[in-house]
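Think of the structure tokens as a kind of shorthand, similar to the way a musician reads notation: each symbol stands for something richer, in this case the local conformation of the backbone. In the example below we present two proteins back to back. Begin with the first one, reading the sequence and then the tokens, and try to describe in your own words what changes along the chain.
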Amino acid sequence: MPKLIQVLFIAILALVGASAFSPSPRGTSASVASPRQTRHITTSLSMAGPATLEPTKTEKKKKTAEPTKEDQKQGSEGWEVRLFNDPMNKREYVARCLTEIVGLSDGLAYQVMMQAHQFGLAAIIRCHQERAELYRDSLVEHGLVVDMVPVADDE
């Protein structure tokens, strides 16, 4: 097979000529191939086969009805990230951080921020432990006063 590819490459070079693959001199525009050269290029490329690949077939995973051991231990969404009121950050900044980091909508971020401002504490989101840790760490890096606590699923 590699010998066939090498022979085809040499044949293409012979038909098109080596000048078609070399850059044009400075200051001049690239030369346009003549119809005869274009015909040879099209002919040689048409022998190459299809240009698109067929999509790969993937097997669908079977969903199990039983929760895994980790889900049983932690609960499906067993952690809550909470925001505390803090006099240092402006309310707009807190709402923007909630929007950009946690992905809350503007309206929901404003509601959470106002709840923390008025009552001293607000629940931002309930999620798995790893995601809760990620949100907590990111919000703390931005200067917000945040913690996370485990919660029961039935609350």
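Once you have a description of the first chain, move to the second and do the same.
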Amino acid sequence: MGAVYFVFRLGSSTVDVVDAVVDFVVSHDVVDPFLRRVVGDDFTPSSEFAEAVDKYDSLPNEQRRRCAELLRDEEDAGSDDDDDVQALVGFVRAHLDEGKTNALLCDSKFLDEKQDWFYGHHGLDQEQVDFFVRAKQFAVNKFRPNALQWDADSHFPRDVLLDAGREGFGGMVAAKEFGGQQLSRKNVSAIVEALASECVSTTAYITIHNGTLAMLDKFASRELRARYVPGLSRMELLASFCLTEPGSGSDAASISTTGVLDTSTDEYVITGSKCFISGAGSSDVLLVMFRSSPEALSCAIVPRDTAGVTFGANEKKMGWKTQPTRQVHFDHVRVPRTNLVGKEGQGFKIAMVGLDGARLSIAACSLGAGADALQRTVAFVRERNLQHEQHVQFKVAEMFEKLSAGRLLLRQAAEMVDSGSSGAPQYCAFAKQVCTDHSTAICGDAIQLMALDGLLQKQMVEKHWRDVRVHQILEGTNEIMRHIIGRALVS
């Protein structure tokens, strides 16, 4: 078995850490460290692990930090290290396996019971907390060990996406009839935040895939749903939404790609280009918006291997490097009329429904990055013994305020979508704008507080910042979000 990572909320105690490791040893599976549904009080931790925890807890901050560095880097203590550091590192090397060592490195003094509200579960019911926990466990085991290397290599982890599909993360909103999970938007927001805390870029593609599938499942014919929804829900097939064009970014109504109906063959002939399409070149199914008449937009499914479909080079981007982004060109591409999603002329409505969900998802992705950046910042501040500096406390408090405000607004917007509220589009725009602005600021503040350390990849916050920066632009720029909100208020 490879490296095993244990995740503990800030309210966990040393007993929680010990019990979680014991449960892992007993079950050989990933534990549920937040809810501790499986761990029983009758388990007795190994004396070696308990002794290591006691030794680690007794060390001053600087020595604890040195021990953590040595253990994480798999290095031995040197002659210049303190005797206590040498003793603890040697003891851990001799008595603990890798999984238990990772659990030990969860700083139990940092897991202050007064901070059990950090993860922001207030406002979530038990089912939603369960979804968060399950997604976090998956992300810790699948994303965390690989995210930085995927980013460095611009690698699209299709094998891990297939694992995500097996966990039910491929068809979260799609109806159960053909294999979807049919979850509420509030449930989905909890899952997405948890996944994104370990890799924003990969999670963002999962949300794009889910959003495309949701539109197909909601508006397509039963025949199309039966053909595509099962494979897409399992992520055996991947999907891309082809809306944006070089001359029409936030203005979806101005697209110029055309689809002319050839009545002799009952096919649409699609001609035009799309840009900044996530997953393009790797995804199997393209959901394409085109102009079916001067006044109306329509939407159709175009398989990737359809004659006349070509792809540009993978764009070299600042962030979102774990998913490909390409132009898609349609040169007289013939698509059967039966591939139409919704009715002819219904494309703009479909796009707007899709964008409401996409804005909630990108908001949740941003919060995941912000939460992880804040957690890493607090750990860094304590490691450097800066927690008593008042200006540091003020900044960390401001970061937490932004995170919490974003969570509450996102959950309100998700509830409005779930209930069918007429104000949902405005609140989706509101949540998208606030969560992306706040999370980008949180990640920037994290880098500033960590100084030059914050620019190092091993801190993850620089990747978070690069990944979330684009969230203020896509799914409608934040300026457009303010336009939507302001227009609704004054009209």
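Compare your description with these statements about the second chain. The beta strands are 239-242, 258-262, 267-278, 285-293, 296-303, 309-311, 325-336.
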